[in-house]
Every structure is written in structure tokens, then in C-alpha cells.
Amino acid sequence: MVSKIGFIGAGNMGGAVARRLAGGGHDVHVYDLSPAAVQSCEQAGAVAAGSASAAVHDADVVFTSLPMPEHVLATWTRLAPELAEGAIAVDVSTIDPGTVELATAAVGEHGHPFVTCALGKTPAAAERGEIPLFVGGPGDAVSALRPLFERIGEATHRFESAGAAAMFKLISNLVGMTNVAVLAEGYVLARAAGITPEQFGAALADTGAASFQSQVRLPWLMAGDYEARFGVELAAKDVRLALDAGARQGIPSPVAAQGLAQLLSAVAHGYGGQDAVAVAKVLDPDGKLLGTTDD
Amino acid sequence: MVSKIGFIGAGNMGGAVARRLAGGGHDVHVYDLSPAAVQSCEQAGAVAAGSASAAVHDADVVFTSLPMPEHVLATWTRLAPELAEGAIAVDVSTIDPGTVELATAAVGEHGHPFVTCALGKTPAAAERGEIPLFVGGPGDAVSALRPLFERIGEATHRFESAGAAAMFKLISNLVGMTNVAVLAEGYVLARAAGITPEQFGAALADTGAASFQSQVRLPWLMAGDYEARFGVELAAKDVRLALDAGARQGIPSPVAAQGLAQLLSAVAHGYGGQDAVAVAKVLDPDGKLLGTTDD
């Protein structure tokens, strides 16, 4: 049914999704500014497109996976007139509902539906198709995409609209990343009280402070491993977008706002490219409690 | 070995522990200002003591389980001279390390060891002995108490000192209750975006925002059930004590500090006696998003 897929943006998550689709026998035409990113998709069976326009040409479904909402909106605004008749626009980036609205209007002007398919979990899980999808958009388009969604992810959570799906994804990162920020505070307090990393980790798992983040990121903090699985800068972006979307509706989110302040502080200190758990470093500038020198 | 146990304070958690000990065949003498609290322990086989002094008289081990650090310190200061020779002082309240230090000195002056045995989870779990214990104090005393700990809880997490154990418990509540505060923010943002409670709950479990609190308290928030399992006022107390202990060591915890501000705001709005999840109400004063009128 879907004979050609265009794919714009083959970064960590986008590349994994493009490879997953190509590996499932789909004819995927990938465009990315980075030749290396495109090559890794070619190795999985995708076709390299010379330009975004070439990727989109005659495609039944076009995906975008781009870093910032501005990129997503600019891309759809430029490509909307070039979409093939009946083509469905799908964004898998993490963007705000305001941008979803504008992108929906941009492609809608040319008769195309816009679908949000926000991606959960990690690039490694995405390579295996083991991620949750947060999906919203016109019902016909979402139904037509179902076989692709089943190849990309293992659970599809359906929302009333593309904007609601995008907002949900932002909210989940707002909550998750603020959980990281306060977990980092708890860890630093514990170290200052002479509690060892091992004591803290073992005992915390047995309390109401346990979380996905304490299971996954606390061991990295304990080991001084700040390699970015989800970087501080990206985390700050998502929390900022969620807060902004909430503020436009008059909703205060003061705890998450302070979480954002800490993430931005970590970026200002030069940790933007490290994992979100590096937010702990701003609480311990000389590294005595975290057992790491400033790097 | 332990022939008489004195127990001061038979509230929700303390009462459960006293009943657990009495039900295990120990000779437990309970004192509480509330006759009803004492009666519920008598039904489990405990003896009612006419006064704190009577509970303590000739006891080998004396427990305190009291609401505030001030109560714990005042009680030990007053009772220290009355403790039987060799008696061990054990506090199961949630108190700060500064108070632990003062109480240790107060009983130490009369030759008695002071042990912290902070309790995890809920009163219901405590009745079944299915709680984690966070224990610290002099090694000999902790060893002597081991049979009692095995009756009270199912896992004993050992810390270097009574103060470290107390601080750990405060930190776990600081993290857990701040997780609740930001979860509440995420929930209100989701409702404002038109996401249903059920969509939010199901999808969130599949993200990095999942936590003990989202598993346990989010269903209550979705159902508008604010019955206190752990009340806003108690939560605020613990986060305040943790922050104060950290601040004394020069440790900033800005996200948790904003969490405390939200809990205190909920208290100021009259929700102090409701469950901690009622912190959501201050974000939605007219109850439109939470689907509840102000009560």
C-alpha cells in the first residue's frame, strides 16, 4: 500500500526509525545534512536522497525527525507544495503543540493530513522497534499508517489530536527530567551526609522515591558516567517547550520551572552535551561529593 | 533476651509497629496521649502504660514514634534519667540528623545508646511487617535489636550512623514528594491539553516519567481521591527538614525547595490534612482541570 517513504532527518532517533522501516522491506528514501547519518541508513537498505525534495518526490508518506520545532515547521512549510497527491505528513520529533498547529496548517493548505508520532525511550530501543509511540492526527491518516507504526514501535498510545500527542510527549519529559533534577539533589544531600552511593542506591529502590530515572540514571550518577543518552540541552529544550505551552494556557508549573533552571544552569556550566544526569554537577561545583573533578 | 519493650507514641506508623511487636509475643508497654490509640495496641496484646515513665520503667528497649523532631528530643531528654540500666533508645519517627545528634547526647549522658530505625512505606504495610527499615546507630545496640527489626520489617538497610539513617529517610521523602509535585504539574498540563486521565495514566507508564508515585498516587489524582495516606502537612515537614539539614551543610536543593513551596501553598489553601497528591489543587484553584470543586 505504501510504496515509497520519504524520511527527512536521520539523527539518533530518526535514523533508528528509518533503518527499522527499511529493514522491514519498505522503500525508504533518506535525506540528512550528514552523509554519515544517511550512510548508516543505506546499510540497512534505505536509499540516499540527494535532497529533501528528492526524498519527498512521489512518496506516499513523509517523515520528519528534526532537532527543533523551528526546523520541523520550516521543513513542512517548504515541502508542502512538493508532496505527492494523497501523501501523509508524519513528524516523529519532539515538538510543541503550537508548532504542530502551524505545520498542520502548512501541509493542510495543500490537502495533506499531519500526524504526530512522538517516540518514547531510547535510540537503542528504537533500533529494535521496542518503543512506545504517542500518536495523534486525522483518523484516516492514522489508520493508513498503522502497518508502519507496528514496524516502528511496540505500543501505540492514541491521542485526540496531533497537538495532544506532541504535548503528552513534552509532559512526559517535563516530569521525567524534573525527577532527574530532584534525584540529583537527593544524591548530593546523601553524599554530604556520608551515605555511600551503594547504600543510597540500594535503599532508595525500597522507597517512594523510586522511579524509572532512579533505576536507569542513578547508576550512571553513582559511576560518574555522564555519556549522553539523553543530553542536558535536549532535556532543557523539551521542558522549556512544555512550560511554554502550559504558560500560554495560564498553567503554572513551578517545580518543573525550577527543574528547567537547573538544566539551563548545567548548560551554562558547559554540560549541555552530557547526559541529563549531569544536572547534579551544578550542585557540587568542585566535584567532592560526586567524586568527579569538573570536566 | 528482650523482656520488656516500652513504646511511646502509637499513631499510624508507631501503633502498627507496637502491634506488630506485641503480636510477635513481646511484652510491649504502650503510652500515647490518645486512649483510642493505646486501646488498638491492647487488642493486639500490648499493655497500656499509664504514663511515659511507666512505659519506660524496667524496659530493655524503648521506642519513640512521634510527629515532630521537637517531640522526640523533649521525650528523650526527659526520659533519659529514667531508663533502666542497659536500655537501648530507638526512634522510629522521621526526624532530622541534628535532632538525632541532640537525642544521642541526651541519652548518652546517662549511658544509653541511641538508634534510628526510620520506617518506609505505609501503615498498612507496617501492620504486616512488610516495610523497609533504615537503621543506624552503635553496632552493639543494632545487633541486639536485630530480632525486633526482623519482626518489624522485611528489609533492614544499614547506615553508618543514626544521623545518616535519619537523613536518608528525609531524602527519600524529599525526592518522592517532589516527584509527586511535578507529576501533579504534568497531570494538570495534560488535562489542559485535552488529554483524558486514562490516556495520561496509560501512556505515562510507558515513559521515563514513570515512578513509584505515578503508579501509586496518580490513580488517586485521576479518581479525585484525596484521602490522606501520607498527608500534605507531613510531606511538607519532611521536605523542610531535609532542605534545612542540607542548607546547614551548604547544599542547595532548588527543585525540592520549589516542591516544598508547593506543599506549603497547599497547606495554606487548607489541604494540609489531605493526601500529598492534593498539591495539584493549587495549580487548578477552580477545579476545572482536576474535575473537582474546591473542598
From TrEMBL, chains A, B:
The lineage of its organism: Bacteria, Bacillati, Actinomycetota, Actinomycetes, Pseudonocardiales. Belongs to the HIBADH-related family. It comes from the Bacteria. Residues 4-155 form the 6-phosphogluconate dehydrogenase NADP-binding domain. Residues 163-283 form the 3-hydroxyisobutyrate dehydrogenase-like NAD-binding domain. Keywords: NAD, Oxidoreductase. It holds the Pfam family NAD_binding_11. The active site is at 169. One of its GO terms (molecular function) is NADP binding. InterPro entries: 6-PGluconate_DH-like_C_sf, 6PGD_dom2, 6PGDH_NADP-bd, HIBADH-like_NADP-bd, HIBADH-related, NAD(P)-bd_dom_sf. It comes from Prauserella cavernicola. This is NAD(P)-dependent oxidoreductase.
